[in-house]
Amino acid sequence: TSLSGNRSSPIGEDTLGHILVGVYKGGLNVLGLPESFIHSGSAPMIRRKQVPGDQNVTGIALDGQGRSWISGTDKIYRFDPATTTLSEAFKGYSFTTYCRDNSKAIFAGSDLLGIFWFDGNRIVTLDSSILLIKKIWIDADRRLWINQIYGLYALDLKHWTPRQNPAPPRFRPKRLLEKPLASMVMDQSGQVWLGTRGYGLLKINPNKPLFNHQLEGISVNQMVIHPPDLLYVSHGRINWKSWGHGLDTTPLRTPFLGRNPNCFIITRNATFYGRFYDPVKLETDLLSWNPHTGDRMRYVFHAEFDETQPMLEDGKGRIWMTGFEGL
Q1: Alpha-carbon Rg of the chain, whole angstroms?
Q2: pTM of the entire predicted model
Q3: Averaged pLDDT of the chain
Q4: Residue 274 bridge partners (DSSP)
Q5: CB-CB neighbours of 318 under 10 Å
Q6: Which of 5, 82, 106, 140 is the one with CA 20 to 30 A from 207?
Q7: Residue 31's closest CA among 55, 53, 11, 61?
């Protein structure tokens, strides 16, 4: 059985190892993988789960209790890995990005509904004024960082509890930066890194209103932290511990073949997989690189995938790529 459509995104993995794939106008596809998958060419078993009302799947989340949540256009469903069934949980809500709360609940962001919190039993709206949210992140001090497409917001939730429903006016996000943002990550020291569209790379100390600016004039579409101290961006590799406090540092090392990856992932064994567009051949290639074995790129295969679609490393180290041309 094939996927219910070619345009696949988002993607996730449940606690039993099923790969969950949302397909545009095709509902949820659940892939059950045999042990011999890939090496023997065994085809995966694909179960198509129609999201009621022909809704698109906008997000897939796994909470701290191992529960899988599937977002439709205006409903959130719980997915049961044992029976591979969907059950409606919340009506009138959807999400496109999420992060886990330390209480095993979820903070979720939506293009149209703003920010809300849910634990499987109830939903608390935190803010509905910020729309077009790309990514959210909760830090150790319970500040919720909101990467909105046109700026950066922070929401202090240190003294907020879910009993305060809706959140009182004092729990409102504060706008910290007004620039078109493309990406956001947080390193192990708690520093927030912001990739902009055309304005370079910014680093902010959450406890001080200070921005450190580098790579001015370029777009940083994606960033990945690899412990303990490396930050990979779409223009190279940075050692964030040696970044410094001024603007005179030169953090870039090892540009990748003079080309910037459309999308990339860093695996658990520190191997880099990136999709690179070749302007000469007018095609996209998947290349891999391991920093422990040198700076030589290895060609994996040629495939056309949309640059904005996510990649996933599953529990067995397999790399999955979604796009407009399939999975």
Answers
A1: 20
A2: 0.83
A3: 79
A4: 264, 287
A5: 14
A6: 106
A7: 11
Residue in the block written with tokens 């596809």: 29
**Which residues sit opposite 184 in a β-bridge?**
194
Per-state percent for the chain, helix, strand, coil, to nearest 5: 0, 45, 50
Instruction: Report the amino acid identity of residue 307.
Output: E
Residue 217 CA to residue 257 CA, distance in Å, equals 20
pLDDT tens column, 250-276: 443 444 444 566 677 878 877 878 777
Tokens found for residue 108? 């979720």
Strand partners, 177: 152
Burial class of 211 by CB neighbour count within 10 A (0 to 12, 13 to 18, 19+)? middle
For residues 188 and 240, give the distance between their C-alpha atoms in angstroms, rounded to a whole number.
10
Measured CA angle at 97 (ends 301, 88), to 5 deg: 110
Both tokens of 114, joined, read 């703003």
Residue listed under structure tokens 């659940």: 30
Asked whether 298 and 286 are in contact (CB, 8 A), the reply is no
Q: How far apart are CA 310 and CA 240, in angstroms?
A: 24
- At residue 162, the pLDDT reads 87
Please give the residue that has the higher pLDDT: either 7 or 311.
Answer: 311
Q: Pick the residue with more confidence: 97 or 165?
A: 97
Whether the predicted pLDDT of 85 surpasses 60: yes
Per-residue pLDDT for 60 more than 70?
A: yes
What stretches of 50-96 adopt beta strand conformation (E)?
Answer: 59-62, 68-71, 75-80, 85-91
- Among positive and negative, which fits the CA dihedral 162, 166, 170, 173? positive
* Partners of 236 in beta bridges: 233
Pairwise pLDDT comparison (168 vs 11), residue with the higher score: 11
The span from the CA of 294 to the CA of 285, in Å, is 20
- Which tens digit of pLDDT belongs to each residue from 167-176? 887 888 999 8
SS3 at position 242: helix
Are residues 261 and 274 in contact, defined by beta-carbon separation less than 8 angstroms? yes
One-letter amino acid for residue 255 of the chain: P
Return phi, psi of residue 246, to 5°: -105, -175
Res 219: pLDDT: 81
